[in-house]
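Work Package 3 (structural annotation) set out to generate three-dimensional models for the target panel prioritized at the project kickoff. During this period the team completed the workflow that converts sequence records into discrete structure tokens, so that structures can be stored uniformly alongside our sequence database. As a representative example, we reproduce one entry of 448 residues exactly as it appears in the project archive.
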Amino acid sequence: MSVLGRIAMLGGATVAGVAAYAQQIQQTSCKAEASGDHHNVLIIGAGTGGVTVATQLMRDSRKPTGMQVTMVEPAKTHYYQPMWTMIGGGMGFTKEQSGRPMSDIVPSNVNHVQEGVKTFQPEKNAVVLESGKTLTYDFLVMSPGLKMDWDKIQGLRAAIDDPACPVASIYDGSTAEKTDRIMKEFKGGEALFTQPACPIKCGGAPQKVMWLQESIFRERGIRGATNVSYFTNLPAMFHVKKYGDALNAMAVEKNVNAHFQTDLIKIDKDKRIATFQHLETKEVTTKKFDVLHVTPYMSPPDVVKKSPLAGAAGFIDVDKVTLQHTKFDNVFALGDASSLPTSKTAASITMQAPVLVSNLIHKMKGEEMTGKYDGYTSCPILVGDGKLMLAEFLYDLKVQETFPWDQSKPSVFFYYVKRDFFPWVYWNSFVKGTWYGKNTWIYPSAAK
């Protein structure tokens, strides 16, 4: 495929067995129409992962005839969360622009149960909703996302909720707008940015907002009066060496004070003091701040962590190639709450979703699962000055780039793809099941 053709990514039995399943589908479909309690495919979560699976599943010509799909999602609005980084980074977007009514996103041929889950009972093929109602299923797809653990860092919630306190985060639409405001009000001094010691969604976002604001500080003429400090749990600016080396050099070039293997543990919003702990030596240090951007701790929803679906770390335990659950063979998972050992990004969904859908359909029909996910993910790292570094890699941090040039070198082209093309393709193709990331609109062979 030509480079121009890939512009977009940036950023898819036996005869007796098939007959038996077709009969089962007819029976369960009738049951679902009669009671509304049983579902052929039940999808938990209508974020990027859940919606993409639903739309691709309904579009797939291989799906069993009469298959019925239901999504369980309490939210009324679906957000394009990558836009929150651009809001907090001063790129002129608003929270309102980042959302669409959930009714416009969930496919019209998919049932939507607008309610949360109370318990998962996979041994009974059942999900109990918060209302107490029980839904049963033939197959379950999990994509519940992560929750923000605002209370895990002492003093963070109080600081975030105080409109007069210069502490904010891009990891929520409202607090992303607060980030934009407090950065605009900042006149110089100590500007601190943090990344926590846990798996997070979009691992590059904590530094994206820093690079964007550092660039704006220079434009505003206050950079000389500002110390920019970045505190990360990692031993480098990024966990993939090629991009980490380039970002380490950039930190030196732009006079960013990088503190590695260091975790924010406490905020005193009144004294404006942040407390940190080194992850290896356990040494505790404090630093005053005039503005502070915090990436909160994150984890799967409590209902997931307490369920039989979760592994020891609380994430949904799935095979990293097939995306099938390691214990319950009629359960699949993708996205942030899964145990997949790759970065948690929207780009990863472009490859996870088609593999999951393919394997789910094969499993439904009693066939061998042939879809194989290789861990592909991408992190478009905004680095300020109207440029972007496009990191792309597979499992084991193996670099796999789409373009025939060194993507560790920041590019104006990538910046405009991120700012203008990605939001457009998300709403017009991604959530409609027709976007396959680095493959653009071409169905990936790994999912066949």
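The longest helix spans residues 15-35.
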